[in-house]
Amino acid sequence: LGALDEAARARLATTIGQHDCAALVVVASTSSDPDLAPFVRGARLSESCLLADRNGEIVLGYFTPMERDEARSTGLEATSTDDLGRSSSAVVTESASSFGGRAGRLLRHLLENRGWRSGRVALAGSAPAGDVLGIARVLETAGFEVTSGTALSRRWRRAKSGWQLEDMRRAAAATCEAMRKVAATLADASIDQERLRLDGRDLRIADLQREVALVLAAAGLEQPEGQIISTGAVAGVPHSRGDPETVLRAGETIVVDLFPRSLLFADCTRTFVVPPVSDEVQSLAKLVRRALDGAKKNLRVGTGGLDLQDQTCAVFEEAGFPTLRSAPKSPRGYVHGLGHGVGFELHELPSFRADGEDGTIHQGDVVTVEPGLYDPKAGFGIRLEDLLWMGPDGPENLTPLPYAVDPSLWPRQG
Amino acid sequence: LGALDEAARARLATTIGQHDCAALVVVASTSSDPDLAPFVRGARLSESCLLADRNGEIVLGYFTPMERDEARSTGLEATSTDDLGRSSSAVVTESASSFGGRAGRLLRHLLENRGWRSGRVALAGSAPAGDVLGIARVLETAGFEVTSGTALSRRWRRAKSGWQLEDMRRAAAATCEAMRKVAATLADASIDQERLRLDGRDLRIADLQREVALVLAAAGLEQPEGQIISTGAVAGVPHSRGDPETVLRAGETIVVDLFPRSLLFADCTRTFVVPPVSDEVQSLAKLVRRALDGAKKNLRVGTGGLDLQDQTCAVFEEAGFPTLRSAPKSPRGYVHGLGHGVGFELHELPSFRADGEDGTIHQGDVVTVEPGLYDPKAGFGIRLEDLLWMGPDGPENLTPLPYAVDPSLWPRQG
User: Fold this and answer.
1) ipTM exceeding 0.85?
2) A96 in B contact zone (CB under 8 Å)
3) Between A232 and B184, whose confidence is greater?
4) Residue A51 DSSP SS3
5) Residue of B nearest to A126 (CA)
6) What distance in Å separates the CA atoms of residue A116 and residue A121, rounded to the nearest whole number?
7) Residue B333 and residue B313: Cα distance in Å, rounded?
8) A237 contacts B66? CB cut-off 8 A
9) Residue A223 contacts B, CB cutoff 8 Å
10) How confident is the model at residue A354 (pLDDT cuts 50, 70, 90)?
11) Region B48-68: what's the mean pLDDT?
């Protein structure tokens, strides 16, 4: 049942040592916190904390007695402030009732109990700023040097295998199902003076959002970061969200970028055009597809994300488009990075914008590859995005969907 | 379109002054951060920050040029690090590329640009611990005293009106619809050797979870904190989550506690028993209902949450049950607090466990009232929870649902 296997534990202890720290401390407002989730799998906790030291010891701290069963379901040693009793040497600060005060007290106790009296402690997890400052103060007062554990945690948890990989495969499969549902709906629409119509009503972005939400909810997935379904000039700006009331139109590009979460995230984009598809859009879509295929072909363990980005820029520049490299301020052309790591965070390591190890593809990474072409003035955006796991036998595409912009060319299932 | 009216701006400036601060600084990994969301309504931003000073000035900081349109849709003055240029006096630290480094640089610039060179800065919002520490370091190096802004922010944003109240009413209405759907499903079930059956299959917790998720998703709501649907001995521990594979049984208590989020949260609990309902459960349910009615009757502006809790304990103690007051360690009886504030956080001010203003009911508060009785050994839990807005004419119940434990007594709609 435990979330952590021996290899992951050993890797963590090594990483803590490499960062010259005695321990990693995680503070989290919720157990879905990306720095805590790898330790607890799906267990539901509210405010909690965790200590992992470089000797391989790991203890989970919780604060609500009612959460004892959830805490123990993780298979980790679990302790709450209730277990400290009054004989604890830890001083109760004036803000002891806050999360920061309680977590600081418990973490100090756990550190001292394991023989740590000084040394560097890396602090990771996400919590209200006031609580983070409070915990740092308690540990510093106790004689520890507190440093950022954010990079340490991200490096440790970037490799995906076991239940984490299974969860991402499941999330990606549900994402694909939602995308197929969108394609089917668009294919079923009729056209009245360019407006898409279904069941006697205008078809709007809100209708697609609702269908996506229903498919994902039925699979047990959430969309904590929302989704992008945008058309025309709005689709021409990569991260703009569509206005739900917008009526969909034939001939316009419809960018559908879904990034739901099970325990971990998935991420996938397709671009649709309900015919007529202009020759220009058809040829731009082919170019984006060529960039996608080229980048996926070059994606292998040891490759640098920056190199992949350069190769992709070259594809678009040769076709006459500005890119982030040739014209960084241009809103037209290929205006964003090629991809990013995905896992407990929607954007995590590897970073396709970083030098060194953080920017190099490792075995176990899950990454997006998502080239696109945009022109807000001409009123279009075209993006294709696949999600790939870097397995021992090469990349596995977790989002094996059609790429056709015409939704009627997508095969129907079931 | 703006998220903030003049009254809210003025209240914020006053609150900042009351906390002896020059400014409130919010750092946020996402615009759904409870300390940032009141400023941006539904605008979608990734990492971002905000400066509000005690003179009433407010500036939103964003870091991704693609998010410019979203940032401006808030109606706030919006600035990104791109606008700083190279002539900025702010020093680029070695960790300038991290969120903490970029936010620290931008916030320092914004503070100095508004004439602040020293003084106390309250830091709120939630972000990775490493980034919080980095931002605090940049501001302290620049000459500011950094203190926790978590309490300040919670106090400022506890009053609900306007679009925030409308959003909570909408979220609560969808929650009620999901609860009615659960009641209807339970009422439709047949019984085979105590097991509930529907459509020729055993009815499981997972089936109810799926129905709830579909209703909420169709209304555009998320469940970022999950939900509790638990039965029997599991329901006997208030915060335990049910195992989805558990088959529902006649005669068992089924606790359904839903707490989805639109922009703000809603929160509501009902307890069901598919007949036969034992005399004991029936009389316990009546007692919980009496405690709920009593607490709602006593709920008014100026009341202390601790007093309401005391009154509720008295109801249960008089009936012979242990309570959190009479037997704090007992897993049996009335084992938790009476309620909590709800808003951009599921648990926020007022706190029913705090003394003073933080624990006193104010006009504009939205609170839960949720008495319950539990016995993990006997294998039951019964909880009833309503969500109430403290309006100028008294409390408004946002979750006006039936209280009957027998789902067949719930009126069918539509």
Assistant:
1) yes
2) no
3) B184
4) strand
5) B128
6) 10
7) 10
8) yes
9) yes
10) confident
11) 93
